[in-house]
Write a structure and sequence with these properties.
Number of strands: 30
Oligomer: single chain
Helix content: 25-40%
Mean pLDDT: 97
Strand order of the largest sheet: 3-5-1-15-12-13-14
Structural class: alpha+beta
Shape: globular
Radius of gyration: 26 Å
Length: 700
């Protein structure tokens, strides 16, 4: 219990929903089954590009338990969607393999799958192209990259300064497509009743899903309730509405009964987004002491023919290091592929892999310690905008990480440390992620019995958001944590932004703090005794957030890694990962550490395991399950340490917090690659770093 001398905020409080989860009482979207509920199963396109000609549903509807088959010929009409990936069952177009062309509805899940399998679809096919190349004829310079960033930025005279630099690096790094693969598949349950629509959806933001469904089905948003109370991971793939709530709502309207639709894991790569592949050319020109004078980061990627998505991979190079002469460019081509989307620190994770790998290569060329090189290139202000940093403690992260890791004992020479058949090496990389804060609303209520209720449509995707928001409320109310209840994950609650971009706590917490402080003031104004009818207060941070800031706001970190490489098999194992982060005030050390090490583990997967390939003939992702698409298991994570530096940044929000989820992933893959180079003397410039790519180089 929090006493008058203790503060809830900053304490390592346990998750308030933890017991419900381990007991199975926390209900996820697919676990809601209204009376009379039917089940739906999608029918994905089996051609890479073309149009549907006809549907033979006779055998399907003859299946035991079959109720209906929806196609573009009979499905309820929806409005033209703002997000074209939601335009399902509207016409006969097949933009890529796996695009959903029909939905089967039946009495049971098994019957729905059998019904879908029995649907016969005739197509007319068209030539397709799914292969990204650095010189693809369809490449164009993107006007804008994701997040509102200009596609191209230039400062100074890069060409002339790079040409004259005494130390230069010109290297190209690439990465395969990657998939989110959250533990909980995408699921939705739709129920029309009394002129209203209720949807249980696996989503990172039910407010946006409600508004999207209202627009598509010509409803007033007040007629729609979307519940996302518990979400089993999303990592961006649930950040914006996906097809499952649209299809479930269509089906429920058509059959007049509730409908549940859970996407099978094999269907996810084609319809819920993925990290696009990138080909990144980085050029660094530096003085002999390693200080950068010219920097260019040029990114080639793909988007789909359905919707433009431009991974903002070159944007970290605009803000990270001293770079008086700079060129950053994003070029994309529209291929016949599923639409890429947000995935685990999108842009920054991709771009910092290339940039931090290049920094390691520059350190070797200049003969400068990799930690010292980054310190020497510490800017006094954000290079791209010219703004001062609200706080920037990257150097402190590097120094503290080096001390904890034992970096000064490292022999800088590559390929020398051997333990039996293993080559051992260590590497470092820096990390940066922007601070994003969006407007939010919240309500707080005090009851006469001494309890408090905080209401806000935040979403807890497994990060511990419920707990931290309750801690923020308890602090603002000057109340014990166990007296504060919290309601989240329902679009009927006060409006709040989605959980994404490591922006949740900073955005939601601001409105919770503001509402609870207003409530505390009301309680104090009546002498501290809450009347029988209770007291309440609400808050809206729209104007607070829009007031803006003259500062550049980022979280920072430093990753240190030790690897071993088997000389006989080229198998890479990470022995140690150690991260030190500067992410504002840490509001709950327990949940923060969990986020940091979880993100670092994702970086391990990005570096060594995660990657998908597209069959150029079939136009389909080959790896469509967790047997073929590999993610780290416990045996892969041997030692993971996360630390942080306390920051007192007054230019963020009332809590002084920055996002702590994605900063733990950014840079971690590069640190692993840098450690592999130190262990072997071989530089791999493609992730995931596979043994078959490394082994021939070890034998050479």
């Amino acid at each position: 219990m929090t006493t008058s001398r203790e503060r809830a905020l900053g304490a390592a409080a346990v998750r308030i929903e933890g017991l419900a989860k381990v007991r199975g009482a926390a209900r996820y979207s697919a676990e809601h089954t209204p009376p009379g509920c039917l089940y739906a199963w999608p029918v994905p396109a089996t051609v890479a590009r073309g149009r549907t000609v006809s549907f033979d549903t006779a055998a399907a509807l003859a299946e035991p338990g079959a109720v209906a088959v929806l196609t573009h010929e009979n499905a309820p009409r929806i409005s033209d969607p703002a997000d074209a990936t939601l335009g399902v069952l509207r016409d006969d177009r097949v933009p890529h393999r796996g695009w959903i062309v029909a939905v089967a509805v039946a009495e049971t899940l098994e019957a729905a799958r059998a019904t879908a399998d029995a649907v016969r679809v005739s197509y007319v096919t068209e030539d397709h192209d799914v292969v990204l190349t650095p010189d693809h004829p369809g490449l164009y310079a993107a006007e804008m990259a994701n997040g509102g960033h200009p596609g191209t930025r230039e400062r100074g005279d890069f060409d002339a300064v790079y040409e004259a630099a005494p130390v230069t690096l010109d290297a190209t790094y690439s990465m395969d497509p990657m998939h989110n693969h959250a533990m909980e598949p995408h699921a939705a349950v739709a129920h029309w009743h009394d002129g209203r629509l209720t949807v249980y959806d696996s989503s990172q933001g039910s407010t946006t899903v409600r508004e999207t469904l209202a627009a598509l089905f010509a409803l007033d948003p007040a007629q729609v309730t979307v519940v996302s109370e518990h979400v089993g991971g999303g990592f961006g793939s649930k950040g914006t509405p996906r097809p499952q709530p649209v299809l479930a709502t269509m089906a429920a309207r058509y059959v007049g009964r509730p409908v549940k639709l859970v996407l099978h894991r094999s269907q996810l790569p084609a319809v819920v987004g993925h990290r696009p592949p990138t080909i990144q050319r980085v050029r660094l020109g530096a003085n002999r002491d390693g200080v950068i004078s010219a920097l260019a980061h040029e990114v080639v990627s793909y988007t789909s023919t359905v919707k433009e998505f431009v991974e903002q991979a070159a944007t970290p190079a605009r803000t990270m290091y001293t770079s008086p002469h700079s060129r950053t460019v994003h070029r994309v081509t529209a291929l016949d592929v599923p639409t890429p989307s947000w995935m685990r620190a999108p842009g920054e994770a991709s771009g910092m892999y290339a940039l931090e790998s290049a920094m390691d290569e520059l350190a070797v060329l200049a003969g400068v310690d990799p930690v010292e090189l980054r310190v020497r290139n510490e800017p006094s202000h954000e290079p791209d905008s010219g703004r001062a940093y609200s706080s920037r403690h990257l150097v402190e992260c590097l120094r503290e990480g080096a001390r904890r890791f034992g970096w000064r004992d490292r022999d800088p020479r590559a390929g020398l440390r051997r333990e039996g058949r293993f080559l051992v090496g260590s590497g470092v990389a820096a990390a940066s992620y922007p601070v994003i804060i969006s407007p939010s609303t919240a309500e707080a209520r005090a009851d006469a019995d001494g309890g408090f209720l905080v209401r806000i449509n935040a979403t807890d995707i497994g990060t511990g958001a419920r707990t931290v928001l309750a801690q923020i409320g308890a602090d603002a109310l000057r109340a014990p944590l166990d007296r504060v209840r919290i309601e989240i994950g329902d679009s009927d609650l006060p409006r709040a932004p989605l959980a994404g971009g490591s922006s949740g706590t900073g955005s939601w917490g601001w409105s919770v703090d503001k509402a609870c402080r207003a409530l505390r003031a009301r309680i104090d104004a009546v002498g501290g005794a809450v009347p029988p009818e209770g007291l309440s207060a609400s808050a809206d941070t729209t104007e607070d957030v829009r007031a803006g800031t003259e500062f550049a706001r980022h979280a920072y970190g430093a990753h240190f890694v030790e690897v071993q490489v088997d000389r006989d098999t080229a198998e890479i194992r990470v022995r140690r990962m150690l991260g030190v982060f500067a992410a504002g005030r840490i509001l709950n050390p327990r949940t923060a550490r969990s986020q940091f090490i979880g993100a670092m583990t994702m970086g391990l997967g990005m570096a060594l395991m995660e990657g998908a390939t597209i069959d150029p003939v079939a136009g389909d992702f080959v790896e469509r399950d967790l047997a073929s698409y590999h993610v780290p298991a416990h045996a892969d994570v041997r030692s993971m340490e996360a630390y942080w530096i306390d920051e007192d940044d007054r230019h963020l929000n009332p809590m002084g917090s920055k996002g702590i989820g994605e900063i733990g992933m950014v840079g971690s893959a590069a640190a692993i690659g840098n450690a592999v180079r130190h262990a072997t003397g071989v530089r791999l410039r493609e992730v995931p770093m596979r043994p078959d790519a490394l082994l021939p180089l070890l034998e050479a």
